[in-house]
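Lab notebook: predicted structure, single chain.

Context: the supervisor wants predicted structures on file for every construct in the current expression panel, including those that have not yet been purified. This is the next one on the list. No modifications to the sequence; it matches the entry in the shared construct table.
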Amino acid sequence: MKFAPLNLDKDELEDYTREWTGERFPDGRPKVSDDLLERMRDVTITEAWGILRGQGYQWQYEDGFVCTHPGETLVGRALTAMYMPRRPQMRTIMEEKGEAEGCIGDQISWPIDMLTTGDVYVADVYGKIDQGAVIGDNLAVSIHAKSGNGVVHDAAVRDIDGIKELPGFASFVRGYHPSFASPTIMLVGVNCPTRIGKVTVMPGDVVLGKEDGVVFIPPHLAEQVVQTSELVRLRDQFGKLRIREGVYTSGEIDRKWEDHIEKDFSQWLEDHMDELPVPKEAIQELLKKRTW
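Prediction complete. Output recorded below exactly as produced.
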């Protein structure tokens, strides 16, 4: 859909996300599996941030948000949108193009109509607070019905009392304001590179939002982030258990493990894989890669 000048078509989007070799949506967005998204919920922001930096992605974390549902986690695939200050002629032309392509209603509804289950609506509204709210509680209901998720908006939201009453709509925004953005803005891109604070977000990035901020994970690194986090979690559980049992000292555990500890860890995984807080299939895959 080319109703806006910055929209990427399917071929362009596939080209700019060429490192992803898995399934895609019809529009070209990478489609990280539902299983990985569910496992991503247990990853900490710090773990994800560290792994991404190690892979050369220095600016994938953004803080300074207000979370509409404190304590909840947001995980999903980014559907991006970019807004700019309204320029009447441009907006008129885009509305003509949108109508020709079957877009319904105001421009702020067009990205919402494109959402699918598991998406996170990520919008750059250039940090706008006064007249910056792209959604209120009614559009929040529509977003949640389509995606099952909340949003990440570099802007305010309105009708916060109604939004807070919507279960499972954990969202990360810049604040609250009763005003409405539509008369002052225009939608210049959907499924395009989008800037959220210090981060360039691409369509299909995995969004991980928790109390300490939001990390945007390139899809080709999502599996590595999940698997590394699960390994860290299992090693931590094993190490604490063996210290409590008196098998090893804290000094032995709090350094690079010697071979006999690695072998013990592998055997422990084998013996307890049905009881551990990581999917059995993931543990079996981990054991295949280990040399002890």
